[in-house]
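Let us work through a complete example step by step.
Step 1: write down the sequence.
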Amino acid sequence: MWTDTRFTQRFSLSLPIVQGPFGGGLSTVELAAAVSSRGALGSFGAHHLDAHEIPAMVAAIRARTDRPFAINLWVPQPEEPVSLADDTFAAHVARLRPYLDALALDAPTPPPRFSPPFEAQALAALDAAPPVLSVVMGVPPPWFFEAARAKGLRVIGTATTVDEAVALDRAGVDAVVASGADAGGHRGAFLRPVSESLVGTFSLVPQTADAVSCPVIAAGGIADGRGIAAALTLGADAVQVGTGFLACEESAASEAHRAKLSSPDARHTTLTRVFSGRTARTIVNDFARALAADEASIAPYPAQNWLTQPIRRAAALAGRAEWLSLWAGQAAPLTKRRRARDYLDALESDTDAAFEALSARSRRAARG
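Step 2: predict the structure and record it as tokens.
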């Protein structure tokens, strides 16, 4: 049975499906709990939370489900600035002035830092002890693995290349996400530049499965049972579905974002740094087009992410999809709005049907 894999056995799940962890406030306790309660692995992207907010969020999910769930953090990269010089900060604000003015927003003043410190977040997450900790953007330090093992917690790492998967496997992850270039949201390349790490999901998965000893989770461009069957056939032990769950009722995606996921515009995505300072896949819109010429000079992550956050929040409230970060994978047109449990029911039945169709085809071929 396709639902019985090394991943489901190791993580005590009924379905080899992981809900992609959304950062930037798109995750919700309700979505993570709904997915986990159905037997898959619900996730909450916590990289934007201050350390003191993480225990309460973990407790809230634990109060809604007795099944395993994951908390996701971003491993910092060396080039991430804590602050910017005053003149540099002013130049980046000036570039965004037309959008600030159009949305009647005050110009921001420099913060003490642009994002919460990873070490404090990690320590808070380890102390809260969710069943699973997942990470993107790099390999956590040894103390992270030691503390997780001491508490009996599982760790999932995310790789965009085979080399990254091997590095995570050697560090001691319990499973590795093979995140193909088709995936929506941020690219987590950390050993080579993103431009040298754009491997498609169905090229990355079998190579990763051959190279690592831990279970492999296929991610990117998977939104229905056909994609799940294909990924498992190529050697994955599970799949991670992001955009499909982002479209679900329980996610915190704005109405404008959700509407775009099921529109013809979702057929056209691009990789861009203009929203956050780090390369991510979004549905093409006016903001992405307008700042494309400045992409090489915009602020790095997390500064650009902090600078555009008020614009994106105001645009969401105003229904201005043309100025939103419309994170979406290349399978977004296959998604639709529904409850998470209904989506998981459909994924299970459609995967059953996909494998049965393959089996029937093989039987017909055998009969000549």
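Step 3: interpret the result. The chain has 14 helices and eleven strands.
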